[in-house]
Input
Amino acid sequence: MYEVVVLARSFSRAAPDPREILERAGCTVKFKKDPEPENEEVVAGLIGNACAVIVGVDKVGETVFSRCPHLEVVSKHGVGVDNVDLDAARRYKIVVTNAPGTNSESVADMAFALLLAQARRIPYFLDQVRKKVWSSSGFAVELEEKVLGVVGFGRIGKAMAQRARGFGMKVVFYDPLVEGEGDYEKVSLEELFSRADFVSLHAPLLQETRKMVNQKMLSLMKNEAYLINTARGELVDEEALFRFLKEERIAGAALDVFTEEPPFDSPLMNLPNVTATPHVAAHTREANIKMGTIAARNVVQVLRGEEPLFRVV
Output
């Protein structure tokens, strides 16, 4: 029997199928709540003698690997593995896997929903109606002929672009790893921020992308432009964003992710031109099942001595 610890809070939540994949393979599955996902000592204690762990945002690195001698595989219930120390995993010969493509449509749906909400001022009007104010003051904007700038043109970025084209928008993108993509125009990051009416972030969190949306980039945006972030909070210099929003040097921001979560103490929460959601872009039934299924199959195949579906290291 293999012991598998599940720390990812949404694993197998939408349906039992992912858990059943593990159980049919002879695994004992233990769901554990991680009260301090940033604390490796806590994470290590929860994993204990397990052979595999399925993680969400839980931090896994040297401390975990050194204290969990039976650990063979870290399976990410998601795509980004910035919470896993890949160099340490290589040293300890531990396999790290992820589940790419499983949430692309869900995140793109959410990003475009936030774009529409900003364009049509839905959060503002909803708040007015709840206050029993029946007023149509202030104008929204149409999307046709507006420019969407997509930062990061992987699966999610391309799915976002497809949705925008359906609304008659023009799409430009920035991604150093992607060449020209049909009707989509590749531009520099500076040109994207200066041309776009809506900037949507879909880049991975790397050393070179951390705080890529900084004072310089924000200063290039139009006063009537919006920023949308469903990727990683750390891509944005939140102090700079706060200043630009407060001074109305950009029109608004829709944020599903933040540097510190929950962001209840963030000054961004006090601004009327910020729409905030609780990191739920990937939270659809379909994405949850697909993601959990791949995360489980990755575990099973590694424990059987087989190549996982999606190996990171």
Notes: The longest strand covers residues 2-6.
